[in-house]
Design brief:
Blueprint lengths: L4 H7 E3 L6 E3 H6 L15 H8 L6 E2 L18 H12 L5 E8 L2 E8 L10 H17 L3 E7 L7 H20 L4 E10 H4 L8 E5 L4 E2 L3 H8 L10 H6 L5 E3 L1 H14 L16 H14 L16 H8 L7 H7 L2 E5 L12 E8 L2 E8 L5 H6 L7 H17 L3 E7 L6 H5 L2 H14 L4 E10 H5 L6 E5 L3 E3 L3 H8 L6 H8 L3 H7 L4 E3 L10 H20 L3 H13 L3 H9 L2
Parallel strand pairs: 5-6, 6-7, 7-8, 7-9, 8-10, 13-14, 14-15, 15-16, 15-17, 16-18
Antiparallel strand pairs: 1-2, 3-4, 4-5, 11-12, 12-13
Helix pairs in contact: 5-6, 6-17, 11-22, 12-20, 15-17, 19-20
Length: 579
Amino acid sequence: MTATAPREEQLWSRCAGCASLLYRKRLRRNLDVCPECGEHARLGAPERLRQLVDPGSLRPLADRLPEADPIDFVDVVPYPHRLTAARASTGLVEAVVCATATIGGHPVAMAVMDFRFLGGSLGCAVGELITRTAERALDERIPLVLVTASGGARMQEGALSLMQMATVSQAIAALREAGLLTVSVLTDPTYGGVAASFATNTDLVLAESGARMGFAGPRVIRQVTGRALPEGFQTADFLLRHGQVDMVVQRRSLRGRLVALLAATHAGAPTRPSVPRQEPASHRERLADDAAAARPPATPAADGTAAVRDAWDTVRMARHPGRPTTLDYLDSVFDGFVELHGDRLGADCPAIVGGVARLAGRHVMVIGHQKGHTTAELVARNFGMASPAGHRKALRLMRLAARLGLPVVTLVDTPGADPGVSAEEHGQAAAIAENILALTVLPTPVLAVITGEGGSGGALALAVADRVLMLENAVYSVISPEGCAAILWPDRSAAPQAARALRLSAPDLRRLGVVDEVVPEPPAAAHDDPAETALRLRAALLANLLPLLDVPPAMLVRLRRQRFRRFGATRAGQRAGVR
């Protein structure tokens, strides 16, 4: 190679779509879109901002946050080393760049993700920075524009990265209540926790030409279903045909479309949540008596300080086929359950069951994942993996509960949301995102219990609650140990090691503040003594429900938001520092 070869290489670029050799300056003048085939090359966040905002208007927001490795995660490379390498290669502090600017003279707050930085993954720092940007938009009463490019949640931060889906979503909800426009621009790729939260729960969703978006990636779907994927699956045009985006926009037209949308919007009046019907004081006093009588003696496991079972053993315990299901608990913990069916859009997902029941005489809405005990039951219930219809059924029942003034109790036990082709065609990511958003503003008490597996966004779609309880041998994680091992270790045989690194057990999550209370199981496990487990769960539900009944709806929503707001990077850094 001659001495001038490196310089020559910088002058030319090969198109990933048609393999044409392109003059780099010409490609840049064409906004990094191939003039031969129209392939839209991925852009870093700084270049994206340069293309969209008015010259001289960009005002970067502070991006320095305390260093945090909240769960001391190590795979083949320690997490801090990965962060250092990403910063060196991109010149960025994190996987998002946040700023205020003007677009066509219209002031906006912007958060632009960069896939080059650890795959644009959503961790505590990214969630904190985007949330702060949304809060800046609220303070200044200006629209929020998000540009997404992400592989999903950041596995190295475990369940705390999962919490960012709710943290950012509730910031979006606050803007919606204030009548301020929120816009997301999907770029290639947008998957996982980002797709299933703020990328799809904004007022408007635009997709750049060639972008791909979905909850599960194509490789995962092929592995799970064993099926070939349709032509153009999860592409921008696919999303448009299936009603999941407002429009598909060529890059050269994107700025103009944003200018037109910003010019057409006006701030509206904030909405006010309805007030749930209050129960008579005598009824609440009876509930208090029932709770006191049902409460078992305090045990070490109840405060998360019991001897810790190996994480992989806990995973296997949570998946045990004999473990009580939602229908089992509806029979043993609650009374008079009346099941309600359907999403009112044409389907009834068997992986989600829900309806009205009584808890110590108090009517509640109970919604949960249903697995089963036998192979036939598991197959019939899709192993507890909800489809979009299941999430929409849950959403319908949550909103019904709010209108009727009923507390909501959710029972979470799922490996994750349905990763199938049909689920993607029917808007899995948007369905999950809408549930998370709705729960952040639901004006009625919400209690969530992780009873078995709490898998990723499929679990969080039922777990944005005032109080989150977790059975002693349950697990709750951003990804399955097998999935984590397949990505970060040489092979899936490292799943036990990944389980330990993810900090997915109840005691770990109690220490991290992800769950509020660990419900002790009998000495062996829930499946060995379901009756005793039911008694303990009933007592925990009553004890946690009672304090919420007298909280005004507006205060409930405010406290719920504060609960999930604390999962930002600053808080994660504080948690890491006190171990």
